[in-house]
Amino acid sequence: MKSLFTPLIAKGLTSLKIQYDWRTGKIKLFAAKEWDSDIDFSTYNKAFYTESILTDDAVFLNTRQVREMYEKYKLSDHLNAVIELIKAGRHFGIEAYYYDKYNIRFINNQHSRKLGIHNKRRAMFSGAMRRHELDKPELEVISDGLNLSRAMSYKNIPAGIKYGGAKTVVQMDSPDMDNMDQLGFLAYAIDKCRATASSDMRMPKDMVSVMRDKFSMQWLAGVGSPLGSTGIPTAHGTFHAIKQAHKFKTGNDSLKGVSVAVQGLGEVGMLVAQLLAQDGAKLIVTNRNMSKVKELISTYPKNDILVVPEDEILNVEADIFSPNAIGGIITEENIPNLKFKIIIGGANNQLRASSIDEEIRLAKLLEQRGILFQVDFWHNCGGVIVAFDEYELWTDTTIDVVIKKTIDRVSKLTWEKLNEAKEKGISPTEAIYSECEKILFN
Prior knowledge:
The protein is an alpha/beta fold. The chain has helices spanning 5-11, 63-72, 76-88, 138-159, 180-192, 207-214, 231-250, 267-278, 290-299, 356-368, 382-393, 399-424, 428-441, and strands at 15-21, 26-33, 59-61, 93-99, 104-112, 125-126, 129-132, 164-171, 259-263, 282-286, 305-307, 320-323, 342-343, 372-373.
């Protein structure tokens, strides 16, 4: 399997950086040996720091030398494929670190520094960490990380967060929560990248509190957080975006008697469904775990709640569709058959697209069908808001304050963009991306 780490492993190197300047089109490559294999990362930020000298045998390779190394191992095509992905999204680049003791392959995907340049924190980038299995094709892993880092750059704009967008992907076995050497390495690597992190897919939820206690305060929103789950403000923001969209479409912000199809009853989707039920909406729901469905019905026994199989939710007829599960569910193939007037949900990357241009194209197809759609990051940014209120204020704020802040921001920004798009004769998604690109790339 092709991997950027193959030459690093063969040469005893620890680090790789790929940096792209979208203004000039220039690429800079850097590879290095920055620590010895016997370093005990459980002592990170006690016996040593990110700036410490961790080897007497340091190696540093420049752009030409790195290209020659990948050519020697017949991996130039793989390196170039990664570079093309970075160029396509106008990403700042990636930082990769390898820990040979546990075969940990760490890649921090960095989209834009623009918002983080002038903040007063150590971290410049924000984004969670997710884990992939070691046998997953690396190009898929990197593509996932780059797409998510780009989404973080854009999501930080409506959230009002002064941090650039990043996303860390690691390929490794499931972390051992008792192994401080493993966790210390992950903390060290995040700090090297000047990033923050939280626990995402396939990473233990209680890892964040251990990281904060043992290694670094750059870890956010885990078990024991003073503000609780990031899903709570995310759901409130999503619900109020639905209300604003309904008001824009009908002139009425009450959802009483309005039919809403809700896909997914996880942490965000369940609360969205509960808020809809409290507002009197008629619900059509689906979820893989039927216990969640039963919980919702038992909580609101007097509400009109219809349950449908997972593969039927896109085929139902409803005023509003709220996707709150997996991404990539709205495709060019199924758009002609959708029977909704509004699509607003908490799920990330709801349009199955590999670029912003493709997202805008699909959003236009929805617009042509008379379906009001707003790209998800404009309203599901509550999780980012709570994470950074925790980071910057810790216990000097409350979850109620954060929820109100999220509702106020999302309601205002949604209403403004829906009206702006109407005035300009474009889709809300196009209006949103236009504003974000002016901020990030001018």
